[in-house]
Amino acid sequence: MVYNVMKLFYSELIFLFPFHLMFRRCRIDMKIIFMVIDGVADTLRYRPTSLELARKIGLDQLARKSIAGCFYPIDNETPPESDAAVFSLLGYDPRRINIGRGLLEALGVGIKIKEGYEVVFRANFATIDPSNKKIIDRRVGRSLSSEEAQELAKAIDGIDLGIYNGYARVIASIGHRAVVVIGSKEKRLSADVSNTDPAYAKEGRLSVALKSFKPFIEPCKALNNSEEARITCELVDEFTRKIIDILDKHPLNIERATKGLPKANALLLRDAEDRYPSIEPIRNLYNRTFGIVAEMPVEKGIGVILGMDIAQVPPPTNNPQIDYEERLKASLDLLKKNDVVYVHLKGPDEPGHDGDKERKIKSIELIDSYFIQPLINNIDLDNVAIIITSDHATPPELKAHSSDPVPIIVAYNGLNRFDDLKSFTEYECCNKGSLGLIANGFKVLKEIFTILEQK
User: Least buried of 145, 197, 269, 433, by fewest C-beta within 10 Å?
Assistant: First the structure.
């Protein structure tokens, strides 16, 4: 009799109390590390890939307890640039995001612009022939240190452009990269101008990498008939002309030349922006709080735009063990305060651009040894899900981003199944992953969150 009464009581309690909602809430409250290894993917047209050749104990361990798939970061035709790819990975259709990368880079280094009277550009220090502006190396052979770039930037920061009360602000960021703000104290300016970097064509506010181009600094062209765009181009061209002479004769470049190093004697500008756009905060998009650990200004700038909690980590050094330990600590600290931590590590992309497959393989192995394996030791996969993917493929054979699909794994002990993966590679994820091939990167995170909430 007592047993029957208790049975009735509990059956009524279960009917009245929505335990299924409590379970669902637990899944929403789980912690998630969303890790993007920049350019880690290759193309299956050239096998074995870097991921197939790398010795990566941690990544393969996670792959064996995960579901997996592949996706096109943008679509099956577009080789994505980093900013568009990151927006897409975070769930924003990049075709509806109209932000010049210059602004993202500026926000990433803590720079603000005066709307209407300043235009901001992403810039590369480059090596040119001053006599004809022929580009010898768009990135100074990747030999320019951040400290050297900062010294050169100081020499031209605040330069008077001599027309329209124009001026320029120049801020070096990491390595050969910089931010340039072109301004006028009397005339309104416009971001509807072309790039002076010939490697990128302008499409709206975004740039698209060109497969071939003439190696000369391009004159700035107004992209509409406005006076603002015309004046902006006049100021840009005057900036380019004036700084070449200053940089070419700078003592630092003279010293570099005596050592057989290329001079950083020009700046190539692209991805102009003149306004702060309105974008839905990522917290509203998913009803979750997000933190971000990123090395490069563009990803940090995206974090600022989307309202993410940004970890302050120092720029990369020549000691990957220290670098990755710092980034791991920052990730774990952010995880205590946020539901999702987005981690962006640059490693393999640069050697992919340089066509150096051996160095790309080594960079994957270093990330695995000093970030992935310690992460596994510090994470309880009963309570934390780990998502690992790439923002785009950078095959060393192509020395550029490609439109190939990239692999993704989702490791979490609460999944009701694991795919039969042996390792984290393009082939394994694309051919064995139950997530299949997803057509657009901006659909991926929502799909994964839905799967995790149901478990």
Answer: 145
- Tallying the residues shown for the chain, one arrives at 455
Whether 142 and 179 share a structural domain: yes
pTM, two decimals, is 0.87
Question: Strands (DSSP E) along 46-117, which ranges?
Answer: 66-71
pLDDT digits (tens, 9 = 90+) for 289-338: 999 999 899 999 999 999 999 998 988 888 999 999 999 999 999 999 99
Contact 138, 199 (CB under 8 A): yes
DSSP letters of 329-374?
Answer: HHHHHHHHH-SEEEEEE-TTHHHHHTT-HHHHHHHHHHHIIIIIHH
Neighbours of 208 (CB within 10 A): 15
Cis peptide before 262 (omega within 30 of 0): no
Q: CB neighbours (10 Å) of residue 319?
A: 10
What count of other Cβ atoms lies within 10 Å of the Cβ of residue 9? 10
- Residue 290 is assigned to a structural domain of this protein: yes
Letter for the amino acid at 435? Answer: L
To which H or E segment does residue 35 belong?
strand 31-37
Burial 166-192 (b: 16+ CB within 10 A, else e): bbbbbbbbbbbbbbbbbbbeebebbbb
| Spatial separation of the C-alpha atoms in residues 150 and 438, rounded to whole Å | 42
> Does residue 230 fall inside a structural domain?
yes
